[in-house]
Design a protein that fits this description.
alpha/beta, single chain, 4-stranded parallel β-sheet, 9 helices
């Protein structure tokens, strides 16, 4: 029997960079405050908290003074940077370069659209950390659309520029853009702002899911990326199972005994956790 961890899954560049940066800061200072979960994976958060990570809500940032703070890969709105300056906080900014570029693009588009009575539209998940940072670039005037049912929030008579949260499903975004084009009568401009790693990973997962009898998808319950990728995987291979740790591996998934098991992780899933899942499978199937 083959039990294979996909070599292209696990942490994306942005998350890997943010965690490496955090570990360096923890080594230097012993304690670092992070605004929100640095990664949407419960197991990795627990490991980092053991090294001195302190997680706070955005609303708690204003209570800190002259201490070490890290902004995670998801990015923060301008208001968070203002608090850092006012409270003399020692900031380590680990915003993903892809997210940072999108923040700049959305702000530039918003300023340009204001001059022509236009609007900026964002395809994203309400309340998601990245979306909060992106909306903040437009003083929350950006129109957030979560799915096709919400395109009526857009004024069809005014020009619009459309962006997507970096971790959204590329196919869903293309379908949404088609609907918006049919709905609007004014000029529409669309940007392919989905992270290339995310887009490539979705395509690689489709191939990987077909190569194995059973797929174990390892992800975090808070991870938007995990849910998007697992839904893609499950549509390709119905014998796919979502789990957050090795303790959730179920022997019933391997009855009848498969010839191969594939293990795939979201962009927020550490390699060490996927290796633990593989070890659990090996032990069960001796």
């Amino acid at each position: 029997m083959r039990i294979v961890i996909d070599s292209g899954s696990g942490f994306c560049f942005g998350v890997r960079r943010a965690i490496a940066t955090l570990e360096q800061e923890l080594h230097k200072h012993g304690e670092v405050y992070c605004v929100g979960d640095i990664v949407h994976n419960e197991q990795e958060i627990e490991r980092l908290q053991g090294l001195g990570l302190k997680i706070i809500e955005n609303s708690e940032l204003n209570t800190l003074h002259s201490t070490n703070v890290l902004f995670r890969a998801h990015g923060e709105p301008p208001s968070s940077y203002a608090i850092v300056e006012e409270n003399e906080l020692k900031l380590t900014d680990a915003t993903c370069p892809v997210v940072l570029k999108l923040q700049q693009s959305i702000r530039q588009a918003w300023l340009q659209q204001k001059s022509v009575n236009g609007q900026v539209v964002l395809f994203g998940k309400k309340g998601h950390a990245e979306v909060i940072g992106l909306m903040g670039q437009t003083e929350n005037e950006c129109i957030l659309v979560e799915d096709e049912s919400q395109i009526n929030k857009i004024d069809p008579e005014r020009p619009c520029v459309v962006f997507a949260q970096t971790t959204k499903d590329p196919q869903q975004y293309m379908k949404l853009l088609q609907k918006i084009r049919q709905y609007t009568h004014a000029k529409m401009e669309a940007h392919n702002s989905i992270c290339r790693q995310m887009a490539d990973r979705a395509e690689n997962l489709k191939t990987f899911a077909l190569q194995h009898d059973v797929i174990l998808f390892v992800g975090g319950t808070k991870s938007s990326n995990s849910r998007v990728l697992f839904d893609i995987c499950n549509a390709i291979n119905p014998d796919s199972h979502f789990l957050t740790s090795e303790s959730e591996v179920d022997m019933e998934w391997f009855n009848p005994r498969p010839n191969s098991i594939g293990i795939f992780g979201a962009t927020s899933t550490p390699l060490w956790l996927m290796e633990r899942v593989r070890a659990s499978c090996v032990e069960m199937l001796k």
